[in-house]
Amino acid sequence: MSTLLQNRTIHIFKTNIHDQPDVNAIASALNNLPGILKWNVAIDDCDKILRIESTQTEPDEYIDLVKTLGYSCEELTF
Amino acid sequence: MRTRDENKEQAIRQQAIEMIVKYGLEGFSMQKLAKAANVSPATMYIYYQDKEDLVLSLGTEVFNKMQLYSLKNFSSDLSFDEGLKLQWKNRAAFFLENPLDVQFIEHLRYSPAFRTISHTIKNSFKAEMGKFVHNAVLRGELVQLPFEVYWSVAFSPLYQLMKFHTQGESYASSSFELTDEVMDQTLQVVLKALKP
């Protein structure tokens, strides 16, 4: 799901990014994407939530990227 | 685009505090909170980055509320006796009126979040209390002590009385209630101990 707040879109994904080494594995790819203002993974959540704050409203690029890196990634809905 | 519903958000924050008091920080999760509040986990993550972000936000709010309450009618120019009496009165009132907030803070006290919060909260409280102590020492109303010694004598007796009150009993009796008389009696002993 995505929500627009103060000119930024917050994207929420359910993933299997399991632990800190997994987070490190996706970090450089995400850090290099233009448009991303802030991101984090709640690895203590059973849904391993990837949260991205971005100027971009479409989530597809993020989903594709995370999948390419070998993790599952689906947008969470309300 | 969804708009932020302040009332709903405040209700969820209150619910989070209740759950942390009931289950502890370890037993609390964003998923459980979402379920209890009847919103989707995705909604929770719109407003908070993760559990830590939410706990920090709650802790900061409760601390600021507690400190604001403690400074009610207070001024660093008060005489030491008057000022400490008002501090005891305000802190006891907050404790009795907001038992859930107090228990929540106790859960935070030994967590990493506590350190972060005590670094980020407004320093006006610390500054005002520091000035109060400084003035009292200058006027010869208060013995000069290291902070920890001062604080232990000036406030710990009050917090122990509040603990007995919460337990509803003490080591010596099966029923205990914190009354104004008990508080004043204790305060007088404390004031005497802190006289130069």
Alpha carbon gap, first and last residue of chain A:
7 Å
CATH class of chain A: Alpha Beta
Question: Treating each run of at least 4 consecutive H or I residues as one helix, how many helices of chain A?
Answer: 2
Order of helices and strands of chain B: HHHHHHHHHHH
Name given to the CATH architecture of chain A: 2-Layer Sandwich
Summarize the amount of helix of chain B as a percent range.
over 70%
| Shape call of chain A | globular
| Count of distinct strands of chain B | 0
Low-confidence spans of chain A: pLDDT under 50, at least 5 residues? none
Count of runs of 4 or more consecutive helical residues of chain B: 11
What pattern of helices and strands is seen along the backbone of chain A?
EEHEEHE
Main sheet of chain A?
Answer: 5 strands, antiparallel
Number of domains of chain B: 2
Radius of gyration of chain B: 20 Å
Structural class of chain A: alpha+beta
Oligomer: heterodimer
Task: Report what the structure shows.
The complex is a heterodimer of chains A (78) and B (196). Chain A is α+β, with helices and mostly antiparallel strands. Chain A has a single domain, classed as 2-Layer Sandwich (Alpha-Beta Plaits), CATH 3.30.70. In chain A, strands 1, 2, 3, 4 and 5 form a five-stranded antiparallel β-sheet that branches. In chain A, strand 3 and strand 4 form a beta hairpin. Chain B is mostly helical and 196 residues long. Chain B has two domains: 48 residues, Arc Repressor Mutant, subunit A (Orthogonal Bundle), CATH 1.10.10.60; 137 residues, Tetracycline Repressor, domain 2, CATH 1.10.357.10. The longest helix of chain B is centred in the N-terminal third of the chain and has 20 residues. The relative contact order of chain B is 0.10. At the A-B interface, strand 1 of A face helix 3 of B.
